């Protein structure tokens, strides 16, 4: 029997834009996803947009009961900035205040630890139209929004989160065209990354001022970069991949400063963002209290096969090629590698290089396309998901035995949810959502997860 520490929590993560849905009179403003879906629905899988989702806005009471039925002792969701402040920096929407207070009270009334994230890829459209995260004004608007949240909900939230996977909107919005503004603009991308970090540090500062006994962190996808071989060129590729993908937010968030090698590389490409000298002090003095770590699959890289075209726009990937390791274990239903050992390596890295900071595994899960084919006698028999979770928990447990400071495991996600351009393609839930009538049914993994939580292990 694998047993976790007594204070370890079990639960799941979701986000506001992926679960709440939208009603005509709810007062929510557009975020970039609402706008983009209206402009280009063909980009979204099966043309299902963010207004549908799993209707948590209407059904949160019954959904919160599902948390108990699936053994949750912790739950993470996010506030939608565009619901609370429809234009991003103006009036507060009283219906949103009422909604979030009721949801948070409902979580607490069920005895569940509440983690609330302030930003999950969802910028209010009115701010995007003014330049979005490229502009410093968005940093200030975010700081105001964060302060309002701490004041209005600080009595209910156990752990705050400033951003979810902040590198993703940088890569997807300014390099790979998968998030709005879907452009290729490295200079803007680096500026956005810097402004996001500054906004995060300002939120940490505000949280510590307004609610001194609370904890605030950031959620990062800390995928280790594994080199193809120990050849110095492959090792260098992995080091630089990790600089851009992980350390760009990990180091300023936990250590209060950017790695010198990253600063030098950015400068060499003439991409140094606009900043003010006092910003660096804000970043230095306002480190997070804990980390959330999302882990799905490893990043494997090799030295680039070709020299970069000096005239092409800069991409961090000029320093590394993605590498498919022969014989890797796959989740064939999502096309992602499964490498459980990644959890252990992340834990070791945090222990050795980041002062063994407290952390939670805030996303880990198995996406499955066409999951209805696994239904038997009315229930999804997702043994593959149970195996996936067990495999990762074995590695997490091994790391904790060796001193890792991990306080909980949150699966992605509790009810199948909408996922950006992938929409409902990949199902991750412990609970199945039937999109035709919005009915919910607990999957086999949901019942297993309850036992896992009750036994504090398996
Ligand atoms: C993470 C995001 C989540 C979620 C998940 C699954 O990176 O934080 O919001 O969407 O990925 O992604 P997908 O549905 O594309 O498999």
From TrEMBL:
Gene3D superfamilies per UniProt: Glycosidases
Keywords: Glycosidase, Hydrolase
Organism of provenance: Streptococcus merionis
One CC-aspect GO term: cytosol
EC number annotated for this UniProt entry: 3.2.1.21, 3.2.1.86
Entry keyword annotation includes Iron-sulfur: no
GO MF assignments: 6-phospho-beta-glucosidase activity
UniProt keyword annotation of Acyltransferase present: no
Name recorded for this polypeptide: Glycosyl hydrolase
Any coiled-coil regions, as ranges: none
Similarity field: Belongs to the glycosyl hydrolase 1 family.
One Pfam entry name: Glyco_hydro_1
GO biological processes: carbohydrate catabolic process
